[in-house]
Amino acid sequence: MPHAQAWVPRRYDSSTVRFVADQRPDNGGVFFDVGAHVGLISCQVAAARPAVVIHGFEPHPRVAAMFRTNAELNGYSAVLVEAAASDSDGHVVFNLDSHAIGRGDTSVPSLRLDDYIATHAIDHVDVMKLDVEGHEREVLDGARRSLASGVIRAVTMESMAAHGKDVNAPAQIIESLGFTRRPMPDIRPAWVRRLRYHLPANVAYVRSTSD
Question: Model-level pTM?
Answer without folding.
Answer: 0.86
